Amino acid sequence: MSILPGLNLSAPPTLLPQAQTARTQDLPAGSEYRFEVSFRSSLRIKLLTGTAELFGTELAASSHQAYTFSGTKAAIYTWDGCTLELTGETESEYVAEETTMSSYANVHFALERLRDGALAAGGLGPRVLIVGPENAGKTSLAKMLTAYANKAERLPVVVNLDPRQGMLAPPGAFSAATFAGILDVEEGWGSSSISGPTAIPAKVPLVYHYGLPSPEDNGGIFKPLVTRMALAVTSRLEEDPDARVSGCIIDTAGAISQGKGGQYENIQHIVSEFSVNVLLVLGSERLYSDLSRRFSAKNGEDAVAVVKLDKSGGCVDRDESYMRQLRQSQVRSYFFGRPGSTLSPHTHMLDHNQLNIFRIDQASGHPTLSFLPGDDEDSAHASTSLYEQVQPSMMMQNCLLAVTSADPYESEENIRDASIMGYVYVADVDEAKKKVRILAPVSGRVPPKALVWGSWPEDVADLVG
Ligand SMILES: Nc1ncnc2c1ncn2[C@@H]1O[C@H](COP(=O)(O)OP(=O)(O)OP(=O)(O)O)[C@@H](O)[C@H]1O
């Protein structure tokens, strides 16, 4: 054991760099290598022989190209068999021969037939909605269908309506993007803002800010945002002939599949706003039966094909502490990038009165009836305020603010419906001096727009030293 100079203490053995030896893993055809890597360690994977893919995106067939994973739970599948070289530590790893890949691939081929039909008839391609409980594999299926669609030279618009995890944006955001190139194997969807060279082209998503953990938390914001997003996506599908034929793929949060009081109001809303015609139900018999009963009555142009799919045995229940770390790493990489594609954010010192901050009123989606003296039944009113304008305070420290494209004097509805230009992070608030230190992804002043502050994502400490 080494001695730390001057301290006469033994250094813990873990401080010493460990030489990691590479091992090989053979995968028979039709099997997958499932692995979990913590945020503190990393696993390097090289494809030595054969072909393999991670949630539909092919690994480069070159022993020089290595993929590094950290804080990842995923699987590498092979259709024809392959050999992988693995270097690093995993929390768990095994090879599974029973997978759901064939049924997921069949969904892709069925969607391709719909796309071919749309091309021939000059119509719209499939509008696909994926629902199911949490951790049922919805996001993984969305990635897979997107990657396969890309391989078939389609350009689907992918929409994320799950605030628990961001797509090309921090958590709390709803986003939509057209995926033309390959997806990023290491990161999942890829990056939206890259200032350095990258092998994967950067995507420019359309973003709206929800700012709460669950879609069920505030229908007064969730539903109108779904409507806005649907309008934007529909007009994209109408304008771009390639996207039109390819259609869209919508990923959702598990919470909307719980069906409060058997209602599934939010699913119903998404289906009607996006004119969904393919509803993929993952991992829940009950949800499938409820939804097929609800949508079976529709026919003609409104018909919705409800398809039941099994949950993959590889899906991992991610606990809250993992999800929190995942969100924090998404926020961190929004500002600082990732290894190999680092970004240079800027800090700004601003006066309190340079910021127009609107806090989301969490209760605004639940109308509160007033039964104060003098209110008869008819005059009982619902609280409709969406936001409260607030001054910077210590409570905002370490939080994200969404920079909307709305001016601060516009109506609450306009602020809610405005697309997001970007996010800033509140590093410090000095209430006495009325100063705020802000971290922004770009240099130049923070635009004098309405900034929205929600309770989600949760605060991220120590982003700025
Ligand atoms: N076949 C598989 N093998 C190993 N891990 C998998 C597999 N499929 C999915 N996972 C992992 O399981 C976890 C849950 O999957 P996923 O994020 O796709 O579920 P979800 O339904 O979108 O969850 P949520 O609703 O909570 O966002 C993820 O970490 C994902 O990478």
TrEMBL record:
<dbReference type="Pfam" id="PF16575">
    <property type="entry name" value="CLP1_P"/>
</dbReference>
<dbReference type="Pfam" id="PF16573">
    <property type="entry name" value="CLP1_N"/>
</dbReference>
<feature type="domain" description="Clp1 P-loop">
    <location>
        <begin position="132"/>
        <end position="336"/>
    </location>
</feature>
<protein>
    <recommendedName>
        <fullName>Polynucleotide 5'-hydroxyl-kinase GRC3</fullName>
    </recommendedName>
</protein>
<feature type="binding site">
    <location>
        <position position="32"/>
    </location>
    <ligand>
        <name>ATP</name>
    </ligand>
</feature>
<dbReference type="Pfam" id="PF06807">
    <property type="entry name" value="Clp1"/>
</dbReference>
<dbReference type="InterPro" id="IPR045116">
    <property type="entry name" value="Clp1/Grc3"/>
</dbReference>
<comment type="subunit">
    <text>Component of a pre-mRNA cleavage factor complex. Interacts directly with PCF11.</text>
</comment>
<feature type="binding site">
    <location>
        <position position="73"/>
    </location>
    <ligand>
        <name>ATP</name>
    </ligand>
</feature>
<keyword id="KW-0507">mRNA processing</keyword>
<dbReference type="GO" id="GO:0051734">
    <property type="term" value="F:ATP-dependent polynucleotide 5'-hydroxyl-kinase activity"/>
</dbReference>
<keyword id="KW-0539">Nucleus</keyword>
<comment type="function">
    <text>Required for endonucleolytic cleavage during polyadenylation-dependent pre-mRNA 3'-end formation.</text>
</comment>
<dbReference type="InterPro" id="IPR032324">
    <property type="entry name" value="Clp1_N"/>
</dbReference>
<dbReference type="InterPro" id="IPR027417">
    <property type="entry name" value="P-loop_NTPase"/>
</dbReference>
<comment type="similarity">
    <text>Belongs to the Clp1 family. Clp1 subfamily.</text>
</comment>
<dbReference type="InterPro" id="IPR010655">
    <property type="entry name" value="Clp1_C"/>
</dbReference>
<dbReference type="InterPro" id="IPR032319">
    <property type="entry name" value="CLP1_P"/>
</dbReference>
<feature type="domain" description="Clp1 C-terminal">
    <location>
        <begin position="343"/>
        <end position="458"/>
    </location>
</feature>
<feature type="domain" description="Clp1 N-terminal">
    <location>
        <begin position="27"/>
        <end position="116"/>
    </location>
</feature>
<dbReference type="InterPro" id="IPR028606">
    <property type="entry name" value="Clp1"/>
</dbReference>
<dbReference type="InterPro" id="IPR038239">
    <property type="entry name" value="Clp1_N_sf"/>
</dbReference>
<feature type="binding site">
    <location>
        <begin position="135"/>
        <end position="140"/>
    </location>
    <ligand>
        <name>ATP</name>
    </ligand>
</feature>
<comment type="function">
    <text>Polynucleotide 5'-kinase involved in rRNA processing.</text>
</comment>
<dbReference type="InterPro" id="IPR038238">
    <property type="entry name" value="Clp1_C_sf"/>
</dbReference>
<keyword id="KW-0547">Nucleotide-binding</keyword>
<keyword id="KW-0067">ATP-binding</keyword>
<keyword id="KW-0808">Transferase</keyword>
